[in-house]
Design brief:
With 367 residues, this protein is an alpha/beta fold. It is built from eleven helices and twelve strands. The strands form three sheets. The chain has a five-stranded mixed beta sheet with strand order 3-2-1-4-5, with helices on both faces. It has a five-stranded mixed beta sheet with strand order 10-9-8-11-12, sandwiched between helices. The longest helix is centred in the last third of the chain and has 32 residues. Bound molecules: 5'-O-[(R)-(carboxyoxy)(hydroxy)phosphoryl]adenosine and zinc ion (ZN). The site of zinc ion has 6 residues, from helix 4.
Amino acid sequence: MTDKPVFILGIESSCDETSAAVLKDTQLLSNIVATQDTIHRFYGGVVPELASRAHQQKIIPVVAEALNRANITKNDLHAVAFTRGPGLMGALLVGVSFAKSFAQALELPLIEVNHMQGHILAHFITQERAAGGSGSRQSQSSNQKPNSKGGNPQPDHQGPRFPFLCLTVSGGHTQIVLVKDHLDMEILGETKDDAAGEAFDKAAKIMGLPYPGGILIDRLSKEGKVVFKFPHPQSPGYHFSFSGLKTAFLNFINENTAKDPGFIEKNKADICASYQKTIVDILMHKLVQASRDTGVKEIAISGGVSANSGLRNELLDTGKKNGWNTYIAPLSLCTDNAAMIAIAGYYKYLKKDFADQHITPLARMPF
Ligand code: KG4
Ligand code: ZN
């Protein structure tokens, strides 16, 4: 850290959330997210042109609100960090163009951030009890110890220790990443077709549930039992494949509704519980394998699907059995948000890793 606090504005517009956040060093001051769920709900997925238009409408009020809630003015900022990719090109263009203009007008450094690295670095965001009202850190870490006043557990460090493994699971990506330092990450394995979030959303669509269906499957699962079996697709090393599971699910629904048109309604909760368990098992199997092979026992999960209660519980259980220290971000930092972009921006700011005004978005962006 530097002597004086650093204020970073983060901007996120890669998919269907328009978000702006302010960090004071690693501390979260504000994190405003304007979601577009109601716009895309009845199309069964994100409609790129509608997403771009909604970002255009929301970006200025969302940034104004983020500064307002942080109780600072734009003149207090030290840098502007933005998501360069990966994501939808039209959606990214809105955030990138805004960030460039804003930074140029204020003569601030501009910092490009890879969205997937942002998801991982969300584990290093700290939250003040007074500001967030929910504890200084919310990662459920087995490293937490009671504070000296005998109050709630306080973390004895910020975020996972290096090196750690992060299972990053979102609507567009599924990766196991070896994180050696804040800005030094290696993808050990990733999906070769659909992402875990897509596997949730597509199954929800097949069942007639609105987009995004992941959270609905999670909710329904809580009332159901694991009674149906789905195949575990084979994939080499730490890679994943979910497209075969989606097809198996579609066939399963078609076969059963042909016999009984009321099949989905009668068995909704059990179908969800069984399908969710299959996805969680596939993810955890590879994560256990990666931990065994690398010897790394600091294990984190991040991305929208890390909000899934089945995955969170399974990580804690598997972690106990395997002697892992496990890290789960608070729900508000799992799904897309600009605080994760601002924290990545903070670490890049410390290294003076700045972008110039010629920068353009990348729909596909390697680490
Ligand atoms: O990280 P994210 O917000 O956006 C992307 O970068 O894609 O992840 C969105 C994905 C969606 O597929 C959504 O259905 C899924 O995360 N998701 C969940 C849950 N909450 C969000 N999937 C399962 N259970 C949840 N509770
Ligand atoms: Zn994301």
